Amino acid sequence: MNAEHDHSILSNFLRRMVPDVEGHDMGDPPEDVAPRLDAFAAGKADAKERAALAQLLKEHPEYLRYLGKAIRMKAA
Amino acid sequence: MSLQSASNITSALPTSFHAVDYEFAQDLLDGDKAAWTRFDQELKPAMLSKLAAAGATNADAHEVVGIVMEKLWAQKKLAAYTGSGPLIGFVRTMAANAWLEYLRKHRRMVPATNFAREDSDADPLEELSKEERAAPQESPLAELLRDALLHALSQTDAEALLVMRLSLLQDVKQRDLCTLWGGCHEGTISRKKNEAMEQIRDATLAYLAKREPSLQISWQDLLEACGEGAEAILGPSE
Q: Can you give the residue range of the structural domain that contains B55?
């Protein structure tokens, strides 16, 4: 199994079937969520907060793009 | 066509464009005899072996291939093939889709041949009508795979899924993920990604086995249907 190859195929398929499920951009997350994602992107989330955010992002994959962008900006 | 203009066209096409297969499909659509002979020699056996692997008997497999031929030719479904993957993947996925339709149709026909079921007080016509309402789908395979994958995603460990999505969808570097995950080793991140994918695979296959036990689909079959065969069940992508 090649995780990258398999994931790429499945996410393209799901994007066509259910556009929101793999991180389709829905704009900025709500006010109570964005600061938590920013703190995570800055490396300030402890294990408990990481677990909580992971669950939140599983339920709301539409926030992934915001988080990914925040992480990339902090890392640049 | 000049070499330069041909080069311009091909450079605008995706790198995975299967020009020879695309031309073959056009010949089939044009009714070219030699192309259909080649179809019988190469693609029909590929569909039959796919169907046999999916649990079809020889007789069922031939009937399903007949259905696929009717769709490809009379219904011009072959026109949906754009060459983005091998033609063999396209027809094999059409065969898998037709096999699923066939299985579901036959499941509905069983009660229709047995109206006076003693073990049920329900009105058989009402039962049939319910099943009929639930049944017709243009792409039962696509919908089944979508449901299976969504179910699998819901079963996957949330942190492993997040690591995988940040890495593969959002292009977050492995070392940045290590920093976010408390300075862990890169091997931990790789392991989480693989774990997520394995969980998705296992949960997807378990869902399919439970929901459609007659459809014996492997992970490779599923990847083919979602990837190079997707046009066969979803039409060309935009």
A: 17-234
> In terms of residue numbers, what domain contains A47?
23-75
Query: Crossing angle of helices B140-155/A3-17, nearest 10°?
Result: 120
Q: Is residue B8 part of a domain?
A: no
Class of residue B53 by CB neighbours under 10 A (exposed 0-12, middle 13-18, buried 19+):
middle
pLDDT tens digits along A10-58: 988 888 887 665 555 667 899 999 999 999 999 999 999 999 999 999 9
A63 occurs within a structural domain: yes
What's the ipTM?
Answer: 0.92
Q: What is the pLDDT of residue A23?
A: 54
Shortest Cα distance from A48 to chain B (angstroms)?
11
With beta carbons under 8 A apart, name residues in chain B contacting A76: none
Residues of B in contact with A46 (CB under 8 A): 182
Domain annotation covers residue B78: yes
CB contact under 8 A, B230 and A47: no
